Amino acid sequence: MREFVFTIEYERGADQLMDLFTENPNLQAETMAIHVTQRSIWRLERVTGPTTALEAFDDHIENTTVCSDIIGMCDAPVVESDHEVLSRTPNRRIVYSVRTEGNGVHSIPFVAAKHIGDGLLMQSKRRANKYQWSLLVDDDDTVRDIYEELTNGLRDGLSLSIQRLSEPRCWIKSNFRTDSLPAEQKAALEAAVAYGYYETPRRNSLKEIASAMDIPNSTLQYRLNRAEAWLVKQFISNTLTTDTEKRTKQVEFKV
């Protein structure tokens, strides 16, 4: 199996919801789970960003009449639609949705399900003007068929590209692999959390935590600095484009 990434880029004005993402660079969405058949699609999506942007996002999903936003790229009418915000905070939404598309050009999940059938695995991410769909596919011919059908039905204001990644990433939840974090740094990070170092106000200082761990203050400081640097790198590598670009090979098909 190889991982292929289908990227849809939206011109401003082509889709109201994607305009919202373009206008709010800190607004992003990624699937936590997605299940697709040739009739319906179910998905669980985590959406994060500024409070005002998320409030505008709420308005969009409440008034959706075409499948151009939650599902993907098509503008065919939605036959059946249901969604529920399972979790809501000022800077995050967890949204469950189920959709059945009507006649017309279908979205990437539906086209992929048509050509791949049972066993389809996919994920999606949205940020700025890009909507990326990652698929695990076992042959190039299937990818070509999906690409050709999507390209032939691509509506104005959208462009489509495909990248083949050098190796599939682990799709089980997070890309945060704690096995690469040294044990003493992990212990320092866990202690800092347990003793309330990252709370506001702090419950304990580094000196107090170091004393409780029976290690020098400078040692704890060093281990925390290294662990925090590791966390930042893991976070950045888990964003929309950074990790993908490292493992990408452009695929060109002629339609």
TrEMBL record:
InterPro entries given in the database record = HTH_bacterioopsin, HVO_2928_N, WH-like_DNA-bd_sf
Ranges for domain HVO-2928 N-terminal: 3-171
Which terms are listed as keywords in the entry? Transcription, Transcription regulation
Taking every annotated instance into account, which residue ranges of this chain make up the domain HTH bat-type? 184-232
Q: Which domain of life is it from?
A: Archaea
Any matching Pfam family: HVO_2928_N
Task: Tell me if Transcription is a UniProt keyword of this record.
Answer: yes
Q: What is this protein called?
A: Transcriptional regulator
